[in-house]
Amino acid sequence: MSVFDRAYDDPVRVLDEDGTVVGDVPDLDDEALVDIYRQMRLARHFDGRAVSLQRQGRMGTYPPLSGQEGAQVGSAAALAEDDWLVPSYREHGAALVRGLPLKQTLLYWMGHEAGNATPEDVNVFPVAVPIASQIPHATGAAWASKIRGDNDAFLCYFGDGATSEGDFHEGVNFAGVFDTPTVFFCNNNQWAISVPRERQTRSATLAQKAEAYGIDGVQVDGMDPLAVYSVTTAALEKARDPETDRPRPTLIEAVQYRFGAHTTADDPTVYRDADEVERWKAKDPIPRLESYLRSEGILDDERVAEIEAAVETRVADAIEAAESESRPRPKEMFEHAYAERPPELERQYEAFAAFHEAHGDEAFLEE
């Protein structure tokens, strides 16, 4: 049975919470499995250091990903070399799998315009902070790729809150009508900032929203990296295959949880109870995969220590490289939206420049 023939509320699983096999393990060799584990460890450590940087005032703000490594790394690992990744603002783990340097992510959240400059050989769209705005972009880019006769697939990420936005419905509907090679990947992490999943929709699942647009929808355990890899691989293969008798677009709902805040600007203890967080931490994707790899004799204490040391070094080097760049000038925020500033924005710029001239950079660094 295809993964697309399951009931919408029957999530695909490969590993249970203890790392025991409960589904079909994807056909990956030992090194590929270890690489998924390594990338998740890297994303988790990077995340912790980034939050720490923000708390020390060395970064403006930051959206933590802890808890979502399985969904991000498992899905991005399924992409072929020429496929495209279309992120929202939390896919730091997925982007690093695709080759985006960690320094680049740090620069973005430190306010450097250079953080938006994706290397030419990295098929990753710019970060999209507005909710769901990247979904029509992914559909359009996929449609263009299809018209050109390319064989690329586009993997577009968004959260559960994005499914309440018009851009979601417009983008998915267009993809269904024009049969674009797009995989819509919903990171259902249970909370859209402080709004719980049950306040987003009366639908029993988000995956079933695919039904309205005539495309496949599937739910997956988003904290099971091997299940996510399997489902995303199947969806990407279908997206690239014009001969399939199924619609090429797919909506994946990856059920998961963010352990930390929505961004470092909010306090999740105000709207979530500690018991809920602990229940989800029992499903942590990293020890789950590590337990499986140890049981198969693929990982041992020595290899885990080696990975941990390499991860810490790589993140430390990235932070040092990012902080060696000169800090961005406050006026730069006006310099990249328009080639010629419209009158209203020009007035804002002049007022800002006068304030900056009178008070200096210190006025912008005070808490």
In short:
Helices cover 42% and strands 9% of the residues. It has 367 residues and is of the alpha/beta class. β4 (191-192) and β5 form a beta hairpin.
> Order of helices and strands, N to C?
HHEHHHEHEEEEHEHHHHH
Overall pLDDT: 95
How many DSSP E strands?
A: 7
Which regions have little confidence, pLDDT < 50, spanning 5+ residues? none
Explain this structure to me?
With 367 residues, the protein is an alpha/beta fold. It is built from 12 helices and 7 strands. Helix 6 links the parallel strand 2 and strand 3.
Q: What keywords describe this structure?
A:
single chain, two-stranded antiparallel sheet, five-stranded parallel β-sheet, 7 strands, 9% strand, alpha/beta, 12 helices, 367 residues
What is the topological layout?
Layout: H1 30-55, H2 69-76, E1 84-86, H3 92-97, H4 102-109, H5 134-148, E2 154-159, H6 166-178, E3 182-188, E4 191-192, E5 195-196, E6 216-221, H7 225-240, E7 250-255, H8 274-281, H9 285-295, H10 301-323, H11 343-359, H12 362-365
Parallel strand pairs: 1-2, 2-3, 3-7, 6-7
Antiparallel strand pairs: 4-5
Helix pairs in contact: 1-2, 1-9, 1-10, 2-7, 4-10, 5-6
